[in-house]
Amino acid sequence: MTVFGGKIPPRNLYNFDEIGIQLGGGRTNNGRVHLFHVKDKARYRVNSDDLELVTVLETVCADGTAPVKPCFVFSGKGNQCAEWYEEDDEIFVTTSPTGWTNDDVCAAWFIRCFVEQSKKHSDPNHPIVLI
Asked: Which stretches of the chain are DSSP H helices?
């Protein structure tokens, strides 16, 4: 199977998404129902009023795989997350003043993560398409 008139194989086609996650769930009452087994002694869920935002950049390939590791953007200044690189150096962890992405964060993720990691997975005889 190919797309774009047979010129792009699925392993060269990627979809990009950006999502914001509020750590601790924030203060909103979202109507979630939590079910516990009748024999569970500890019946609680972790929640806090933490309003810190974390933005996640993620991609998925049209062949159903996710060969490009995500990017996590925390609010703050400088690289406060250096020790996280020891776990998996292909995951991009960074900070921005607001926790949102900006041109610099997106450009760094694109060059350091997407280009390198998608090349390892994609067919080199065809262009890589990011949607």
From this structure: 103-109, 116-121
d(CA 125, CA 9): 10
For residue 25, CA distances in Å to 63, 79, 105 come to 33, 24, 25
Residue with tokens 């060969």: 67
Record the tokens describing residue 40, joined without a space.
């569970």
> From CA 56, how far away is CA 92, in angstroms rounded?
10
Q: Strand, helix or coil at 33?
A: coil
Domains in the chain: boundaries: 10-26+45-124
Reported confidence tier of residue 30, pLDDT bands at 50, 70, 90: low
Residues 114 and 108: their CA atoms lie apart, in Å, by: 9
Q: What is d(CA 98, CA 84) in angstroms, rounded to the nearest whole number?
A: 20
Stated pTM of the model: 0.70
Two tokens at 105? 């964060």
Alpha carbons 67 and 61: distance in angstroms, whole number? 7
